[in-house]
Amino acid sequence: MRAFIITGTSRGLGYEICKQLINRNHLIFAVARNHNDSLNEFAAQHDCKLHFVKYDLQNTDGISELIRGIMERVHDEIESITLINNAAQVTPLGNIDDCRPEDAVKSIQTNLLAPILLTQSLINQTDERNVHRIIVNISSGSAKDAAASMSLYCASKAALNMFTSCIQLEDHKSLTIYKVDPGMVDTSMQEVARNQEGLAVANFFKEAKETGALKSAEDAAKKIVRRVLASQS
Do the Cβ atoms of 29 and 6 come closer than 8 Å? Predict the structure, then answer.
């Protein structure tokens, strides 16, 4: 059996990743502030053990205990443990001097600090186990392409990419870590960005929506899940 920890599963890409990983041979921990009940129904239909873990990743002080609680429910016969750091927020949007300091902190906590601490905690708490650890960080084109009014999101995604590359150079036994850029996906987060009044790149996002350039969350998740499952072998 394989275990999966997926963040941000209430909707969008995280929901689709979680749904597509539902399998009778998988143990899934869906971490989010809110639960999508349809995941439980789908898991029951496919004889899959799925646990919803209610948690706000802005509470970075509690992440070690979050992972500890999850690992207490993962038995020693598990073949692999995969962490998919998907949760993210695109807000606040606007010039940096218009962003409230507390909102900037929340953005960095969710998009960067939480994935770093989740990675650290998982490595620490599974180091004595004879198990393959896989960590997948969901990236974005915004990590490479600067955009006015999106400085916090772009910077946090760029930093997450560099963090991932650095961990790849460290010496950790039975650890596979990589980033995946799903491309532009038609999610509620994308909708917020393209409908933000005064956002410099809003027209670009609107045009992408109108011309069909956005991927569906379902199709983007298929690409990610295929790679995740290939990483298990």
Answer: yes
